[in-house]
Amino acid sequence: FVTGIFHLKVPESSHVGSAVGRIRAVDPDFGKNAEIEYNIVPGDGGNLFDIITDENTQEGVIKLKKPLDFETKKAYTFKVEASNLHLDHRFHSVGPFKDTATVKINVLDMDEPPVFSKPMYTMEVYEDTPVGTIIGAVTAQDLDAGSSSVRYFIDWKNDVDSYFTIDATEGTIATNELLDRESTAQYNFSIIASKVSNPLLTSKVNVIIHVLDVNEFPPEISVPYETSVCENAKPGQVIQTVTAADKDLSPAGQRFSFRLSAEASNKPNFTVHDYRNNTAGIETRRNGYSRRQQELYILPVVIEDSSYPVQSSTNTMTIRVCRCDSDGTILSCNVEAIFLPVGLSTGALVAILLCIVILLVIVVLYVALRRQKKKDTLMTSKEDIRDNVIHYDDEGGGEEDTQAFDIGALRNPKVIEDNKIRRDIKPDTLCFPRQRPPVEDNTDVRDFINQRLQENDVDPTAPPYDSLATFAYEGNGSVAESLSSIDSLTTEADQDYDYLSDWGPRFKILADMFGEEESYNPDKVT
């Protein structure tokens, strides 16, 4: 070493692993023989530092192994040994080929943030604690020589932090709202401490607050609230095992007790047997039950916890009487099953009722359609047939056919019923003698005419006879085409009537008349 003592100054804020100084040993050799190895001699302060060799400069680089604290220790002294890395055995007898130097490190005081007394704080508070109750405190100190005062505040991140407040000077934490264990069981937030002399220097610590449960809810029966008993049940038979549930956070060793209410203790139907392990059994006290007499039983059960203050509640259980087989298997618990024959299930009953309903609907629809059809027939018979069009889909006989259809269908039905005699043709067999009263000499002409008019009105043989000529197939598209004179030719000579011969023997006379005028001889017509 060039000098036997090295003095170094290191700030207490130096980071672990950082280089805090360099020392150098001189070796006149060259090459591989000039390589030096540095080691810290065990002793005072040596465990806080480490030394390595810089391969380029062959200097010893001192590094920090642990954090420094000026307020704890202000200086460190240790020795460093330098030796040749490669030794030639031929020169072992010449000397040790190593040297030792002393290193003194002075720690420089730095302005540091406050330091909390604990790395984390855990507190407890009962739910429903009054607002403003102090539940704990945090402490931080300025360890620098100047010893500045410290201020505290909550690191606000969400609305949960608003449940608590902290005294800025003392660091005491108090409730700011009522706490509910069933809503939130634990709160987690951070407290920040800063120096009054330098507010930028801060430190943070985590605070966990556990909310303790208060016995505020009574225990209740866990589901189910309804059970059943067979009609053939025996006394002492357990029909249901019940347990308790508590909305409060049950402490270790919590016990629940079960019993019948006072008003139900004297009834000979059921009882409650407390097993003293937070469960109880509902037992029968009778030899058989009848659904016809009573289908449902109401059983009030009292449950009580062992916390302070003691909470209890009365829970109502419904017990339904059911029909069971000899093994205790429930067959039916429905009321209507009492009146049904054995083996007829509810599903079968529903199917039968559905079929009956469908049949009733079909009958109602059939009756309604019948009534509607009858009503339409009556309405049609009351109408005047003369207002309707009667269509005969057959070929007529021409001019000579006077009986191809019944023209009476076009007359008023009431007249047809009163007088069955057809008036469209002259009667052949009926001939009623007409007896006319004698005419007096002084009879008025008007009275005479009216008298004769009435006689002819009631006389079926009196002319004129009603008739109807129908031209249903005249016009474009028919065999006869249009019979209108509007489209007729200027002269009859320009017309061709040869097509009349194609209409059959009934139109032979017309064909002879119009087909060839010069050959037509009326005297030959028979």
Automatic annotation (TrEMBL):
A Pfam family of the record is: CADH_Y-type_LIR
**MF terms (GO), sorted A to Z:** beta-catenin binding; cadherin binding; calcium ion binding
What does it do? Cadherins are calcium-dependent cell adhesion proteins.
Keywords attached to this Swiss-Prot or TrEMBL record, sorted alphabetically, are: Calcium, Cell adhesion, Cell membrane, Cleavage on pair of basic residues, Glycoprotein, Membrane, Metal-binding, Repeat, Signal, Transmembrane, Transmembrane helix
Protein's UniProt name: CAD12 protein
**Gene label:** Cdh12
Biological process, per Gene Ontology: adherens junction organization; calcium-dependent cell-cell adhesion via plasma membrane cell adhesion molecules; cell migration; cell morphogenesis; cell-cell adhesion mediated by cadherin; cell-cell junction assembly; homophilic cell adhesion via plasma membrane adhesion molecules
A Gene Ontology term for the protein's cellular component: adherens junction
UniProt topology in membrane: Single-pass type I membrane protein
